[in-house]
Amino acid sequence: MSKKKTARKQTRSIIKPMRLYERFHWSQRISHALLLTSFSMLGITGLPQKFSTTGWAQAMIQFFGGIETTRLIHHISAIVLMLLAIYHILDVGYKIFVRRTRLSMLPGLQDVKDAFQVFVYNLGFSKKRPQMGRYTFEEKAEYWALIWGTAIMAITGFMMWNPISTARILPGEIIPAAKAAHGGEALLAVMAIIVWHMYGVHLKRFNKAMFTGKQTEAEMLHEHPLELADLKAGIAQRLAPPKTLRKRQTIYYPVASVLSIAMLIGIYGFFGREKTAITTVLPISNPVPIYVPQTPTPIPTTITTPVPPGMLTWDASIGAIFQSKCSLCHNSSLATNGLSFASYADALRGASDGPVIVPGDAANSKLVVIQSASGHPGQLSPEELATIKNWIISGALEK
Amino acid sequence: MPKSKNYRRLMVIILVFGIGLVVVSLVGLVRPVAASPISAQVPRPVTASNSSPDNATCLACHGKPGLTRILPSGETLSLTIDSSHFAGSAHKDIACSECHTNIVSYPHPALQVQTIREFSLQMYTICQKCHQEQYNKTLDSVHMRAVAAGNTNAAICTDCHNPHTQLVITDQNDVLLPEARLSIPEICARCHSAIYNAYKQSVHGAALTQEGNTDVPTCIDCHGVHNIADPTTNTFRLQSPQICAKCHTDPAIMDKYGISTQVLNTYVADFHGTTVTLFEKTTPDQATNKPVCFDCHGVHDIKRVDDPVYGLQMKQNLLLACQRCHPDATTNFPDAWMSHYIPSPTHYQIVYYVNLFYKFFIPGVIGSMGIFVVSDIVRRLIERRKGARHS
Known about the structure:
The complex is a heterodimer of chains A (399) and B (391). With 399 residues, chain A is mostly helical. Chain A has helices at 3-15, 26-50, 55-64, 67-99, 109-122, 137-161, 163-169, 174-203, 209-212, 217-223, 225-233, 242-272, 314-325, 344-349, 366-373, 382-393; strands at 20-22, 214-216. In chain A, α2 crosses α3 and α2 (26-50) packs antiparallel against α4 (67-99). Chain A is rod-shaped, with a radius of gyration of 50 Å. Chain A starts with a helix and ends in a 6-residue tail after the last helix. The mean pLDDT of chain A is 85. Chain B has 391 residues and is mainly α. Among the domains of chain B are: 247-336, no CATH class; 349-391, no CATH class. Chain B is 51% helix and 2% strand. In chain B, α9 crosses α10 (193-201), α10 (193-201) crosses α11 and α15 packs across α16. Chain B is elongated and about 110 Å long. Chain B starts with a helix and ends in a 5-residue tail after the last helix. Residues 28-49 of chain B have low confidence and may be disordered. The chains are: A mainly alpha (399), B mainly alpha (391).
C-alpha cells in the first residue's frame, strides 16, 4: 500500500466512523475454507474408524459406503490438507522473507499474561480486560494447536499408510503407536474445535471476519485494540521499497520452487509409495483335497473257506452252506415253495414244481439258474455258488 | 437481532451434541460377543403300526450274517442287520417298517436300484419323518446342495448316522454327550480323510484324538452340524473370527489352559480385524484378503503359538505369515501387529505410553479450555444482567 492510499484511507476513517478493516486476505479465507472442509471430512471419516465397534460408527461407515470408501475419503482429505500445509509453509515463508511482515502469530510471554488476566477478569478479581493485538492468545493457541496437530497427524498418518517402509527403519511397534497417537490427537483436535473454536468465534459472538474478510472499527476496538492503534499510527505494515522486494523475490521464488517440488514428492510418497499393503492380493490358501473317502469297511459276511476237492459232499461242506444261507426260508417247518434244505434227501427231492438239483448237470439245475440270475431273497456269494456248482457237477454226493 | 439469536441457539445445540458424541463414543468402546450353543432335538417317539411285522420277524432273516444281494452294478448289498448293535441303537424301539415302508410281507417287492448308493439316496428322505428339524437344516447345507447338483458322493443323513447302529448321542437336555464328541471327526473322516489327517496333527485334533479332551473343537463346532455351510464363501470367511471367539473368549474353557480371552478384542482393534468386522456388519458377502484367524493360525492344522517348529511366537514364522500378503515386509514388520497383546509397560510399551499420554493430555487440554470457556460464559451472563455491554 502506498503512502498516498494509506493517507486517503485514514482521512476516510475520520469521516466515516464505521470503517471496515481488512482482517483476512482472500487467499487466507480460501485456505480456511479448504482447511475447514478437509478437517471436517477427516474428522467425520476418522472418528468412526477409531470407534468402529460402536453402532453409531458403523452407521456412519455404512453411510459413507463401507469402510473402504470411508478410508478413501479420509485419504483424499488428508492429501488436500497436506497440499494446504505446503501452501501455508510457502506463504509464511514469503511473508517472513520477502515482505518481512510482523510475526504477529508468534506466541510470547505476553500471551500467557493475557490469558491469565482474562481468566482473572472472568472470575471477577479484576475490573479490566487486557488489550490485545492482531492475534489474541486464544487465536494463537488455536493456530499453534493446529500446527502441532497437523504435524502429528501427518507423521503418524504416513506411518499407518506406509507400514512396510516405516518398519524398514523403525521398530514395528511404532506403527500401532502411531495409530494410538493418531486417534488420540484426532479426538483432541475435534474436541478442541468444538469447545474452543466453536465457542470463541461462533457462540461467543459470530465472528464473520473469516468469511467477509473484514472487521468494523468497533469490532477491532473490542478485540484487537493494539492492532487498531498500530494501524491508525501507520506502523502496522511497513513495506520495503519495490526494488528491495523484487530482489528478495528473485531469491525466494527459486528456493520456494525447489522446496515445493520436494514437498510434493513427499506427498506423492504418502499415497504412491507402498502398494502391497493396500492392493488386493488374493488370499493365498493351500487347497485341501475335500473329498478323500476312506476305504469302506467291508460288509460283514460269513467267511467262506475254499473247500478242498475231497470234501465236496453234503455232509462235509455243502450241507452247511445250505444250512446257513437257505434254511431260513427253506427248512423242514417252513418249506417255502415246498423246498427244504433240512436234509440231503429233502434237497434232492426239490420243490413242489420239481427238483432243483440235477446231479452232474449244474447248468440245468434250477438252483444254479435262480442263483446265477440273482434277485433271489437269499443270495449265495459267488464263491459259494461256484462250490455248489462243482458239487453238482461231481454228482451231488451225500458222503 | 433474532437472526443471530437463532444462530447462537444452533451453535449451542452443535456444542452440546458434539460433546455428547465424544462422551458416548468413549463409553461404548467394546462390546462382548455372544456365543450360541449347538442344539439338538429329540425326535418324536414312533410306534409300529399294528399291521406291520414286528422287528423279530424281520430279524429272523435279516439278523443272519451273509444275507446279501448282488446289485446290477456288481456291488454286493448286505441285507444283514447286526442284532446286537441294533439292540443298542437309538432306533431299537422303532419298527423296521417305519422306515422300510414298502416292505410289509414276504416275498418283498423287488429292489429297483442299480447301486448301493442309489438305495441310500432313495431311503434317506425317510429320516425327516421323525427328524424334521435336522432334516430341514440339511436342506441348506453344502452337502445337500452338492446332492442337488448331482454329486451323489455328498453326505446324506445315513452316511453320518447309520440308522441301524446309531447310538443315542445327546443327554436328557439335548446336549451332545462328551463321548459322542470324540467320534465326530472320525465320521467326517469317512469322506474328508485328508482334512482329518491334518486335524489330527493340530493342537485341537491331537488333544481330542490322543488325550480324549472334549474341550477342543471337533468338526461340527466350526462347521456346524446338519446345516453345514460352504466354508469357501466370503460370508464364511468374514464370520469365521466369531467361530473361534465362541471358545476363545470364554474364560470357562480358556482359563484351564492359560490362554488369553482377549484375542478377539485385540484382533478387532487392529486394522485387519476392524476391516473384517466392518465388512461382516455392512457387506457380509464382501470378498477380502484381510486376514482372519485361520490365515495366520492355520485352518485344520492349527498349531500352538509356542510350537517349536510352526509356532507364531517365533518372529520368523510370523514374518512368513505377514509376507504371504505383504511380500515386501522385513524383519521389523511383524511387530506392527501386537500379537494379541494389550499394550502394557511390559508389552508394546511405546503404544502403552502413547495411550497413557493422551489419557491425561486430552482431558488436561480440553478441561482447561472448558474451564476457561465456562468462566467466560459466566462473566458474560453477569455482565449482561448488569446491563453492561460487552463484546
